[in-house]
What does this fold into?
Amino acid sequence: MKISIITPSYNQAEFIERTIQSVLAQNYPDLEYIVMDGGSTDGTVEILKKYSDHIIWKSEKDRGQSDAINKGLKIATGDIVAYINSDDTYEPETLQKVADYFKKNQDAKWAYGKCKIINEIDQEIRKPITWYKNLLLKNYSYSKLLSENFISQPAVFWKREIHAELGFLNENEHYCMDYEFWLRMGKLYSAGLIDDYLANFRYYSTSKSGGVNKKQFQDELRLAKKFGAGHPLSIFLHKINYYKITIIYWFLNKIKL
It folds into this structure.
């Protein structure tokens, strides 16, 4: 199965080479890797040029992260697609595990795996959060997804054909475009579990997620309400989870953990 990976980037010269190397090091035989850069001025373009023989890339102004991802998805030709941000990384053999899963589960439209949280120097951090998410990953249900966003974006893969039915990422969403897309997919198709670590999500104070936790969680609650008609219990639980996770992340940020 051909797999297309998209990386949106903008001024991520500090990390993007590690992302690129983690994708290319998969040594997957039928890989299409697309990097859509938003016109970086920090040396990112020079890094992309180094890998021109192995990746498809373009550097131009865009309308933000969702727009960049959609541009990549619209030119992707793989049977399976995914996006990984320019500061995250894949675990070894991830793409082969993904391909094996979809070959064994022909009817599956999308699947997710486990994801570690790492810091700027690739050390694993916040293990209790990973442990908690791993518990929730075990048995997918749409009600559970409405009650809490337990799926880690870098560890999600789906069949490209689904875009003909659902369209692409909502470009009006800037912090939760992934959760909004999971809710659209999940409403129609159950997600499969690849019970292994597939990716690493990089968390640090100046990252997009690191600086806007509260806004992100507010947007997740808003989206749950939007898609949660007929699921009042899930929305009630999401409100509780919103306060719980806001407090937890406030505390973790306070102690710089």
Remarks:
- Residues 232-254 form the longest helix (23 residues).
- The chain has a mean pLDDT of 95.
- The domain at 3-254 is CATH 3.90.550.10 (Spore Coat Polysaccharide Biosynthesis Protein SpsA; Chain A).
